[in-house]
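Lab notebook, design round three. We kept the backbone fixed and only want residue identities now. Task for the bench partner: fill in a sequence for the structure below.
Input structure tokens:
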């Protein structure tokens, strides 16, 4: 049989894992995986329950033109303790504008172009033209621009989306979780970022 799986949210991803488990005779194992992932998200939320600061977090799913996040990525931001209002959870990613980005005034920017590994992002940046006003954004001025492995943690609907939320929590709240390891996220050097 052919099975089409098109998740839009973290709950959908978990449902898909369960469905594949059922179809392959591995329902118990699939349930164990889903329960473990859900427990990790609950633990993340518990650590952040008393946090008052939720940094405005811009996840860019494409650089040129800039794409605001969709699907499960805004949920990952929320689980990580960030403000996820720039994006549309459960919907497709959409093109955004320099003006919308400036109005949001992100305190943290994470570059996660769909299908890119961190090294690919860092290679692509010098040739990309980022939105006008980029260097005036609080995140850029505060040296809080990061590149993360989108392929492993954000683009693919699988168990590693929980890893992505946990790494993102280290970027947003290092005072609680410690800073991310260099293998997980790379702070982007200002000289790599050019504007239109």
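Proposed sequence:
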């Amino acid at each position: 049989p052919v099975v089409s799986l098109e998740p839009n949210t973290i709950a959908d991803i978990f449902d898909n894992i369960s469905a594949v488990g059922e179809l392959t005779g591995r329902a118990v194992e699939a349930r164990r995986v889903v329960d473990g992932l859900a427990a990790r998200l609950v633990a993340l939320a518990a650590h952040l329950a008393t946090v008052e600061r939720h940094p405005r977090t811009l996840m860019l799913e494409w650089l040129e033109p800039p794409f605001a996040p969709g699907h499960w990525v805004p949920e990952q931001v929320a689980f990580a303790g960030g403000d996820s209002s720039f994006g549309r959870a459960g919907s497709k990613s959409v093109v955004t504008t320099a003006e919308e980005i400036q109005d949001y005034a992100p305190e943290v920017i994470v570059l996660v172009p769909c299908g890119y590994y961190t090294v690919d992002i860092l290679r692509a940046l010098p040739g990309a033209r980022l939105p006008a006003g980029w260097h005036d954004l609080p995140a850029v001025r505060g040296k809080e621009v990061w590149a993360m492995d989108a392929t492993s943690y954000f683009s693919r609907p699988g168990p590693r989306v929980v890893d992505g939320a946990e790494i993102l929590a280290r970027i947003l709240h290092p005072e609680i979780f410690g800073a991310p390891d260099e293998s997980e996220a790379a702070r982007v050097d200002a000289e790599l970022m050019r504007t239109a």
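Keep this in mind before ordering anything: Residues 52-192 form a domain with the Rossmann fold fold (CATH 3.40.50.1980).
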